[in-house]
Amino acid sequence: MATYIAKGALVTNPSANNIGSAQFVYCVATSTAQTVIVKDVDTNTLGEIYLALAGDSVCVEKAPSDTITLSAGKVSAVGSPRS
Questions:
Q1: What is the C-alpha to C-alpha distance for residues 4 and 57, in angstroms, rounded to an integer?
Q2: What 3-state class would DSSP assign to 34?
Q3: In this prediction, what percent of the chain has a pLDDT beyond 90?
Q4: Positive/negative CA dihedral, 64, 22, 48, 82
Q5: 0.90 exceeded by pTM
Q6: pLDDT of residue 80
Q7: β-pairing, 5-6 with 73-79?
């Protein structure tokens, strides 16, 4: 189990949100078959991560200006104990 430091408010169902310019974002699906979409400032898709089940989670590293979309989920800015 990983350890994270909370660095911001919880965001529900983010859409093209930079999550407070966070570098690391913890994402949890609240419904089945969700995709975390990461886009750059020019709205180019940088990557997608599939979360198959409600409760599936992933920690995404991104640039501060990159955005996260997760249509049925909750996300939060996080840091590691070393940051």
A1: 13
A2: strand
A3: 89
A4: positive
A5: yes
A6: 74
A7: antiparallel
